[in-house]
Write a structure and sequence with these properties.
Elements: E1 7-17, E2 21-25, E3 30-43, E4 48-60, E5 66-76, E6 81-91, H1 94-101, E7 112-120, E8 134-140, E9 144-152
Antiparallel strand pairs: 1-3, 1-9, 2-3, 3-4, 4-5, 5-6, 6-7, 7-8, 8-9
Length: 153
Amino acid sequence: MTPVLKTKYVFTVTARIAAVTSAGDIGYGTRRIIPIIGGEVHGEGINGKVLPFGADFQIIRPDELIDLEAKYAIETDDGAVIYVVNTGIRFGPKELLEKLKRNEPVDPKLIYFRTTPKFETGSEKYRWLMQHLFIGSAARHADRVVIDVHQVL
């Protein structure tokens, strides 16, 4: 018998974002680039800030499913730097996704937005981030993305 999968909440990332840049239709969707300009990280084992560089590179498919790949860095309150690559998908009713594109509020419970963050750091204290898998439950707002990160046990 295999181990039962469980998850444990570890921290929340709030990434502030700037205006969307679009590269247009690339043949299988629309490429969008959304700068990450800062933010905060809060949790039991990790606190710090999202550094003001990085971006979320998205493809909006013709069926409106959004493939996401965000690359950014976190600096902890004790000075460690953690590089993050966070891939995922966002999907929901077309009319609600259109509202999000216009920066109009949408109840996050009505949008499926999940991610799989991976971390890299030279800090021994945070090495555990590289030794486990994580999943995120996220919400998109006009000026930020909020991700609750859970460790898969």
